[in-house]
Amino acid sequence: MSSLKSVGIIGGGPAGLSIARMLKETGAFKPVVFEALSEPGGKSFTYYHGQNVVEMGTCYATFSHRITNRWMKELRMPMSPLGDQRFEGDDFMKFVKSGAGPALPLQVMRYWRDKQKLEAALKADEPPQAALDEAAMPIQDWLRARKLGKIENFMLRSTTNIAYGFIDEVPTVQALRWNDMNLIFTGLLKQLKMPEEGWTEFWRRIARDLDVRLNSRIGAIDRSGPRPALTVEDGTTHDFDLIVCAIPLDEFSRMTTATELETRIAQSVDWNGYTTTLLAAEDWFTDVHVEAFKDSVVPGAARGQLLSARHDGFEPELGGDLYLAGQLTGDYTSSELQELLRAGVEKRGAHVTNVILQKMWKYFAQYRPEAISGGLLTDMRAIQGQNSTWYTGAIFSHEAVSHIVNFNADLVQKMHRRL
User: Fold this and answer.
1) Which of 9, 69, 156, 223 is 20 to 30 Å from the Cα of 94, by its Cα?
2) If DSSP codes are grouped into helix, strand and coil, which group holds residue 195?
């Protein structure tokens, strides 16, 4: 009889697959991943056509991707640096340095010092109320109180431009979590990289060494007995010693009898939307890799506007030069977003010849300020392991693959200690 602890993992995106690999590597767990779709990887979704590899979700790897970067090397998957970027028609670093306040190196040091101080306070079993209130304030207010205007400019690109919310709304704790020093130095040193074979291929290879059951949507979760049981929509039921929620908590809660704490955490976040569209266009830029646009990322800008575009190759069969465009979804429909996208491209002197693929993602779980002040961060630590259930993914760490995987590394250690 096996002494391994069986673990049912709901969700085969980066959260579910990475924690499955780490659990298996401990030698103490036997993970099984249930994924509703026919491909692993979730929002790490790559579109392939001919020689073109287009990332529709996860795109860049930074110094923060220390674990997935190592796995890429082990799998012999080469990475290529991101090409040149422009922000509002000029070099991005020139824009960053135009921000108010002292010289950039001094601002980076001040940012790092105050970030560490706040995050240390938040790790306490009972964080001081002043620290919770500071964590809940909009990051723009936090930066301006410290005269960090250059860092504020940096976050227009690093945060809003990649759909992590407007800086006058995003809570400080979440902006600091994403904008760590690894990210800042990756950006300043222009070391962003992308997997040449695509993120989907990466997660396919990770899944090969795991028990991953595709096309297996979970319909119900029963935690009333001695062992949690997962029922797949095909009617089969599987029981486990432990289960891992690697999908949004609100979706998980609808499958089971949710606890009071699960309900409170799920209701403490507002999911945003991010839409990425692969299009072909003529008379647009080809001399740089990425163009980003200031008027769509400054606080107060309307959602739905073109945030940025990335030149992703050329394919006559699909309409010419290929671009991946991003928009904050807002309340718009798919067709409305396409109209706004065409208008944004036309505004910049180009013309859309073909809309090839559009993905509307449930994206970036933004914490409600009153929930942060009321103890949300403590709740998210306390819930781990309750009812034989562990939790990972964007709510508990951050939307970025790097943070989800790094979070899982710590979570697996906690799970192991509980044995």
Assistant:
1) 69
2) strand
